[in-house]
Amino acid sequence: xxxxxxxxxxxxxxxxxxxxxxxxxxxxxxxxxxxxxxxxxxxxxxxxxxxxxxxxxxxxxxxxxxxxxxxxxxxxxxxxxxxxxxxxxxxxxxxxxxxxxxxxxxxxxxxxxxxxxxxxxxxxxxxxxxxxxxxxxxxxxxxxxxxxxxxxxxxxxxxxxxxxxxxxxxxxxxxxxxxxxxxxxxxxxxxxxxxxxxxxxxxxxxxxxxxxxxxxxxxxxxxxxxxxxxxxxxxxxxxxxxxxxxxxxxxxxxxxxxxxxxxxxxxxxxxxxxxxxxxxxxxxxxxxxxxxxxxxxxxxxxxxxxx
Length: 307
Hints:
Layout: E1 7-12, E2 19-25, E3 29-32, E4 41-43, H1 50-57, E5 69-71, E6 78-79, E7 85-88, E8 93-97, H2 103-126, H3 139-162, H4 175-178, H5 181-185, E9 191-193, H6 220-230, H7 232-235, H8 241-259, H9 261-265, H10 269-274, E10 276-279, E11 289-290, E12 301-302
Parallel strand pairs: 6-12, 7-11
Antiparallel strand pairs: 1-2, 1-5, 2-3, 3-4, 7-8, 9-10
């Protein structure tokens, strides 16, 4: 058992990642909150810290040591606004999930994604989507890229504002602000497939975001959008079909990263037919949310992410 300090801890079975208990560790006492009984509370012996006492009095934990206790970033029942993560609890599930999602906002995001996807489908009736044709460009393709990227920007801004973030330049958000959500939402880990076009390789729309010194240049589809939007005459050819597919991937990633898999794919068959995930974030137990019921708390509460 390797753990130190005070706070809330999740015990997770090392062999398969199964959740095995929620603990509150204080200076002289350790209490397992999701069960009751004489074996749920441990008091430090004279001359020992609580971790030493807990280690000595719980021999049944030793076969799973080390690293079975994970200090939680959030207290039970706390969650970040518009940031979906798995929730540890009695009904633990790997699918990421978000509490208190604004149903109206989710419906608007779904509607916009479907409208954009239908435009992409029309374009693909003329330009077959294949690597050989990914360099194709034209007015319809450019216009779709602009709309898709504008929608992603709207989602970025919505996440920051929901968490009380103010832009570095008052009144104006830029990618220097937007990139701050990348690690908080695990965006680099998503990759997207297009089931209607199974011959296409998965797309990682945020794979290198935040790696370089220029957040806009780190994501080529967004860089191309900026160029083609502001200087169509000279940068028209950068708004290609490939960049549109990447921007569409970014849209579905942002929908899932904010509202969870059930909200993203559980609203009719169209989204599921158009998009699927090849990979998703692998959250550590410390980063997950915790069902408030495990600690006897009545409801979830939002707490702003500290960017």
